[in-house]
Amino acid sequence: MEQCKILGEYAQYVEIVRKNAKAMSLDVAVQNAVDECIQKGILEDFLRANRAEVIAMSIFEYDKEEEEQKLQKTYEAIGEKKKAKAIAISLWQEGDSIDKIARIVGEKEKTIREWTGEKN
């Protein structure tokens, strides 16, 4: 039961960091979250004893999570572009016009020409 309480308090801490990070720099957000949690009795003993380590690790982990999310979005965009290219090539092979393909896949005609090897 004690571990569930600690896990719940940790979730509260993380939520406070995220809320703060929307309005201030990450390092200030983490420091304020630690102070707020101590004042509210959330992980109070642990945060008092390990303040510097918690702040350093929280900043590192938050930055890591943000970078992983950015990387995931990039991968998704690349995947969408590959799908659009495959669809464009298929449509071109079926005889559709470059301008029609461009409208369907949401790309510029120039891009469709590059993908298909079609010259003006």
Characterize the structure shown.
With 120 residues, the chain is an all-alpha fold. The protein folds into 2 domains: 1-49; 68-120, Arc Repressor Mutant, subunit A (Orthogonal Bundle), CATH 1.10.10. It has helices at residues 2-21, 26-40, 44-49, 51-93, 98-105, 109-116. Helix 4 (51-93) runs antiparallel to helix 5. The longest helix has 43 residues, at 51-93. The mean pLDDT is 90.
Brief sketch in words of this structure:
The protein is mainly alpha-helical. It is built from six helices and no strands. The chain has two domains: 1-49; 68-120, Arc Repressor Mutant, subunit A, CATH 1.10.10.
CATH architecture of the largest domain: Orthogonal Bundle
Helix content: over 70%
Mean pLDDT score = 90
CATH topology descriptor of the largest domain: Arc Repressor Mutant, subunit A
Instruction: List low-pLDDT spans.
Output: none
What is the beta-strand fraction?
Answer: under 5%
Biggest beta-sheet profile: none
Helix run count = 6
The CATH C-level name of the largest domain is Mainly Alpha
N-to-C span: 71 Å
Secondary-structure-derived class: mainly alpha
Q: Order of SSEs, N→C?
A: HHHHHH
Whole-number tally of structural domains: 2
Q: Tell me how many strands there are.
A: 0
**What spatial form do the alpha-carbon principal axes imply?**
rod-shaped
CA radius of gyration is 25 Å
